[in-house]
Specification:
heterodimer, A: mainly alpha, 6 helices, 0% strand, B: 257 residues, alpha/beta, six-stranded mixed beta sheet, 8 helices
Chain lengths: 147, 257
């Protein structure tokens, strides 16, 4: 990701209301609309899940200039989620719900450049998560838990 | 988003199909069933039509089971997946350097391009590697930096057409930093100044293996009447000059002296 992409990512996150979990809750609501089959994978309270998601977004934004760290964390996340039953095909509605969350929360302030930046970032992050998932599937094919 | 004007090169359909089969059987695609369908769908359309056109909603309906009245603006699943597919293809070709052809799905389009690969593919670490630094605007106007970003993208794209040239972007350089392996031989830097509609670009090609000396330098001028046309024209001019400066022949190979 170049400096312009990173700038657009940071500007978009900065526009979200601080400490407000409404966007993250909207993300899950939209995800379950787009892909109802993933709803049973989330066994914990969605409010707690939204907090985790919000924290993860903040962590990603803080580490955009550290691709090694991002890769390591995304692979670990992908590996964990394989255990929860997440499949490669689920990354598509996740990405769509993420973009929709920004559209919904920011309206016209979510610029085409921000949209493009998130497309690029999500492609990078989700492919790293997939890589972790492939590696985990080889290491522990029977692991199961809850997202 | 449609894809007119991006018709694939006249490669034999059987070669293309075989190439797709090979890619889809790789571990990168094996469990990515929708991404595989996406690739197969756009390739099939491109092979079957002399002037293929694919809309975002066509893919949404054919590959992602969306209803015919779905709105891609509120469900951008196809654009998300297109970005992921481009990244996946890039990764696939890094792992499996193409021998006869490669598939490219240009940004903003869904029609794939089938690009023949002549001879042995460029090897990672070959002598002609260029790191393209993001071009800088020397004015305070943010739109000038946007122009520079677009121009950088266009230059990377055009240089990447030379098969013996290994083009490294700034983001890839960040990724490679601290890792073992060959470093780029050249760095391409440029700054842009603007006065009204006139822009002046100063370009330097720096050879890192020669103590950072400037191998080639030039000044280019353009008028900003049409941004995309200006970017394309400048990038083509830069590509031509670099090919001459690096002694590349028409196939993109460095001449042996």
């Amino acid at each position: 990701m170049d400096s312009t992409t990173i700038r657009h990512l940071r500007e978009s996150i900065a526009l979200l209301p601080v400490g407000d979990l409404a966007p993250a809750n909207e993300f899950y609501r939209r995800l379950f609309e787009l892909a109802p089959e993933v709803r049973p994978l989330f066994k914990r309270d969605i409010g707690l899940q939204a907090k985790k998601f919000s924290d993860m977004l903040a962590w990603v934004i803080a580490n955009l200039e550290h691709p090694d760290e991002l890769c390591r964390e995304m692979r670990a996340l992908g590996a964990r989620h394989t255990g929860y039953g997440v499949q490669v095909n689920h990354y598509a509605p996740l990405g769509s719900a993420l973009i929709w969350m920004f559209q919904r929360s920011l309206g016209d302030r979510f610029t085409p450049e921000m949209d493009e930046a998130w497309m690029e970032a999500y492609a990078f992050l989700s492919l790293e998560a997939e890589r972790g998932s492939r590696e985990a599937a080889v290491d522990s094919p029977t692991q199961r838990g809850s997202a | 988003m449609t894809g007119p004007g991006a018709h694939p090169l006249p490669l034999d359909a059987a070669i293309v199909s075989q190439h797709v089969d090979q890619a889809l059987s790789s571990p990168l695609f094996r469990k990515a069933e929708r991404q595989a369908r996406f690739l197969r769908f756009v390739v099939d359309v491109a092979l079957q039509s002399p002037e293929p056109t694919i809309k975002e909603s066509d893919i949404g309906i054919a590959v992602y089971d969306r209803r015919s009245d779905y709105d891609p603006r509120t469900d951008p699943i196809v654009r998300v997946e297109a970005a992921r597919l481009r990244a996946r293809l890039r990764e696939y070709y890094e792992v499996t350097p193409p021998e006869r052809m490669r598939i490219d799905i240009p940004k903003g389009r869904y029609i794939p391009q089938f690009i023949p690969v002549a001879g042995k593919p460029a090897q990672v670490g070959s002598g002609l590697s260029i790191l393209v630094s993001p071009f800088r605007s020397l004015t305070a106007d943010p739109s000038d930096q946007t122009f520079c970003d677009g121009l950088t993208e266009e230059v990377v794209h055009q240089l990447a057409q030379d098969r013996q040239l290994r083009v490294i972007t700034q983001s890839a350089a960040a990724w490679l930093e601290g890792r073992d392996g060959p470093k780029p031989r050249y760095v391409l830097e440029a700054s842009v100044r603007r006065a009204g509609a006139e822009i002046r670009l100063t370009l330097h090609l720096i050879e890192l293996t020669d103590g950072g000396s400037t191998h080639f330098s030039n000044i280019y001028q353009a008028t900003l009447d049409d941004t995309f046309a200006a970017q394309e024209r400048l990038a083509a001019e830069i590509r031509g000059d670099l090919a001459a400066a690096l002694h590349l022949d028409k196939e993109g190979r460095e001449r042996v002296h």
